[in-house]
Amino acid sequence: xxxxxxxxxxxxxxxxxxxxxxxxxxxxxxxxxxxxxxxxxxxxxxxxxxxxxxxxxxxxxxxxxxxxxxxxxxxxxxxxxxxxxxxxxxxxxxxxxxxxxxxxxxxxxxxxxxxxxxxxxxxxxxxxxxxxxxxxxxxxxxxxxxxxxxxxxxxxxxxxxxxxxxxxxxxxxxxxxxxxxxxxxxxxxxxxxxxxxxxxxxxxxxxxxxxxxxxxxxxxxxxxxxxxxxxxxxxxxxxxxxxxxxxxxxxxxxxxxxxxxxxxxxxxxxxxxxxxxxxxxx
Length: 282
Known about the structure:
Layout lengths: L2 H11 L2 H12 L9 H8 L3 H10 L5 H15 L4 H10 L6 H15 L2 H11 L5 E6 L4 H12 L5 E3 L6 H8 L4 E7 L5 H11 L4 E7 L11 E5 L11 H18 L1 H23 L1
Helix pairs in contact: 1-2, 2-3, 7-12, 8-12, 9-12, 10-11
């Protein structure tokens, strides 16, 4: 069981103090978990001996070994290919089904995300003065496209990424202070997205990044980072938490746009009705 999985287990079944510690360690994992022990104690307002006991109960000889293991996992897991993870999962005893881990991922994701993070993200997405591009990686791009198509029904100036030669350059050329990028990117991270973020940030573009708990390199340029848990016993990273987070953001954005969104949706439905009537005449 990885360090992350052990901390996540405590978040579900630990004592009140342990859950508080675990919640902090997961708040910006892995970085919040590899800090100075005295700083962690001060931030969670729980004594150092209590934190040390929790670490011992997790099977580590002490906090130094705990921190060392997290750093080792960060190095090994962040760039691990699905093939490597599948080989590893074959060697490990299957303690639970994928859906069970998925449920835990969703619970841990929303326990970790601060409500104000989703509040800020939905406020930016509801700002109709911003042209919005939704972009994702090789697999998460599908989620970004779905999110864009959903948003198009309630606000203008929403664009989904269509891959063709020069497509990212087109986004860069037209990006500016009135542009918002909404990005979904989990390991193995998309290098072209990172380069795009780096380039458009210099032009004042705002960026919202939904990524895994390891953190896409693009987070260095993001205004808002939304971490989701993606672990799965199958060896594949799970996209389920990402999907649920997008649905929550969509709900909050819809509420903020309010009557304007309903009017836009009504215009879309009127057009659909017009097309249907013309087809009947043909």
